Amino acid sequence: MASRRTFLQSSAAGLAGLAAAPLAAAALPPVPAAGKPVVISTWDAGVNANKGAWKILGAGGYALDAVEAGVMVTEAEQGCCVGLGGNPDRDGIVTLDACIMDEKFNCGGVAALERIKHPVSVARRVMERTPHVLLVGEGAQQFAVAQGFPLEPQRLSVDAEKAYKEWLKTSLYKPVVNIENTGNRPTGPVGGPQNHDTIAMLALDAQGRLSGSCTTSGMGFKMRGRVGDSPLIGSGLFVDPAVGAAAATGQGEDVVRMAGAHTVVELMRQGRSPQAACREAVERIAAIKGAKAKDIQVAFIAINTQGQTGSFALQKGFNFTVSTSATPVLRDSEFLLK
Ligand code: ASP
Questions:
Q1: How many angstroms is it from 51 CA to the middle of ligand 1?
Q2: Which of 63, 67, 207, 304 could form a disulfide with 213 if both were Cys (CB 3.0 to 4.6 A apart)?
Q3: Are 296 and 175 in contact (CB under 8 A)?
Q4: pLDDT at position 176, please?
Q5: Phi-psi region of 160 (alpha: psi -120 to 50; beta: other; left: phi over 0)
Q6: Confidence of residue 10 (pLDDT cuts 50, 70, 90)
């Protein structure tokens, strides 16, 4: 009969077997010194966003303030995929999704929010000033206005308008993986590449508090009323102060169906590093999708309570930004489908 000791040894070996092969040291994201802050965010938009977050983290501030301020930088940039400059839904309306979560399981989100510049800040108000976790559509907008957020004009940015007109030529819904990373609007070939992108940010502050945020205009030319993973706690974002935090970007439907960010955190709870946890979550999505996995992009970022960070993507092309000082470090992510 196996003794408890043998059992523990063999379980540890089993876990080690499940873990992803270690990354080359050069590919590993920087780790902060004990008691020092760290912030990780999705894509190269994270370079500017992390700088915004670092103003708070570097001064000894609160992770929650940092993850809000950080992604507000991207929302204000009004690029293709986050904030009011984002691509519209198929009816030509920009609808925004966002959420935020602190180190005490407090969380808030907004979905399908229109004409508000900073959905992440409305999400924080939902968290702090309502008994609810998620407000959607008209109700979310009413709440935002009541909270003093200005109602911006209902119009598309010049680039979004161009992309929408191009898309209308075919009206095909056919997302192209990593289009967000090309810096281009989807004005390309027939079949219409659809842009999608999200900024998600996770931070550990000098006091060891973890927080996360996530904000996006969602999949370009989505059906009216479509909500992705990004405003959903447990899918696009999850924070557990005893374990770590995780966030997602990419095809939201495939993140939602396996509760992506929560899954990554649970895998870290079972002993995986942030990198290995992200990898295993991506492997699950690949297994669920089968042959269709090659048609989508999904990626996770994660951080644990020691400040170790990691990321893993389904396809080549995902990058992420880590800061352990005022200078952000942009890294290409490891990925599954070679
Ligand atoms: N996850 C976002 C959504 O599905 C889009 C993205 O990150 O590319 O709405």
A1: 23
A2: 67
A3: yes
A4: 55
A5: alpha
A6: very low
Give the pLDDT confidence of 168-199 residue by residue, as tens digits: 998 876 655 555 444 444 433 222 233 447 99
| Distinct helix (H) and strand (E) counts, the chain | 9, 14
Say whether 3 sits in a helix, a strand or coil.
Answer: coil
Measured from the Cβ of residue 337, the count of other Cβ atoms closer than 10 Å reads 13
Place of tokens 């969380």: 107
* 294 backbone dihedrals φ, ψ, rounded to 5°: -70, -15
Task: Spell out the alpha helix ranges (H) of the chain.
Answer: 4-18, 45-57, 63-77, 119-129, 137-146, 158-168, 252-256, 260-269, 274-289
Q: Look up residue 145 and give its two tokens.
A: 């206005």
Residue 312 pairs in a beta bridge with 300
How many CA atoms lie within 13 Å of 86's alpha carbon, on the beta-carbon side? 37
Query: Which CATH topology does 29-332 take?
Result: Glutamine Phosphoribosylpyrophosphate, subunit 1, domain 1 (3.60.20)
100-125 tens-digit pLDDT = 999 999 999 999 999 999 999 999 99
198 is catalytic: yes
- Specify the pairing of strand 319-323 against strand 329-332: antiparallel
Q: Which of 74, 95, 198, 215 is catalytic?
A: 198
The CB of 197 under 6 Å from ligand 1? The reply is: yes
